[in-house]
Design brief:
Radius of gyration: 25 Å
Shape: elongated
Number of domains: 2
Strand order of the largest sheet: 1-2
Largest sheet: 2 strands, antiparallel
Order of helices and strands: EEEEHHHHHHEEHH
Helix content: 40-55%
Strand content: 5-15%
Structural class: mainly alpha
Length: 176
């Protein structure tokens, strides 16, 4: 028998969900009261984020195992979220280079609109095929913030490499 803190009734132990973190192994609220509680996605996100911060190795291991068990699901998610995947990869690359900052796929979409779908250097139409370029390169101490990102066509980005922006624009004849 256990006391429910919500409905203030004493109920049998099978009326409670499991909770290994508690001394009695059961949640403090009965199943009926638990079901009546509205789902709050913002609160759930805070709890999940806190768990990820406190248990990074467990989360990485779980993700790794999940990808191994369900490769088709992972592949499908990657296909549906190409911009997120590109942003994650860019963020991880920046972390390896000890660069500060992050950007999201939504910010890249907004930047595409701000650049009117044109390359920042040669002004040709990008038509959604572009490279995300760090204006001031990561290798020279640039940040990974969205304000250090520009969208270039593949030709301009490969030609620029890791040159400083002023040096590169001078080689194109834009700055004297």
């Amino acid at each position: 028998m256990k006391y429910c803190f919500k409905c203030k009734q004493v109920k049998s132990l099978d009326s409670y969900y499991m909770d290994r973190s508690r001394h009695d192994g059961k949640q403090p609220v009965c199943k009926d009261c638990h079901k009546k509680t509205p789902y709050d996605p913002e609160k759930r996100k805070i709890v999940k984020d806190r768990y990820r911060i406190n248990n990074p190795n467990k989360c990485k291991e779980h993700a790794r195992n999940s990808r191994k068990k369900h490769p088709e699901t992972h592949k499908k998610w990657v296909e549906q979220n190409k911009e997120k995947v590109k942003a994650y990869k860019a963020s991880n690359r920046a972390k390896r280079k000890n660069a500060q900052g992050k950007f999201t796929g939504q910010q890249i979409d907004k930047l595409y609109v701000l650049q009117k779908g044109k390359c920042a250097c040669c002004k040709i139409d990008l038509s959604k095929k572009f490279h995300r370029d760090h204006i001031y390169p990561l290798s020279l101490g640039g940040s990974n913030n969205i304000d250090n990102i520009q969208l270039l066509c593949s030709g301009c980005n490969l030609q620029k490499g890791n040159k400083e922006p002023i040096t590169y624009m001078q080689t194109l004849g834009f700055l004297l």
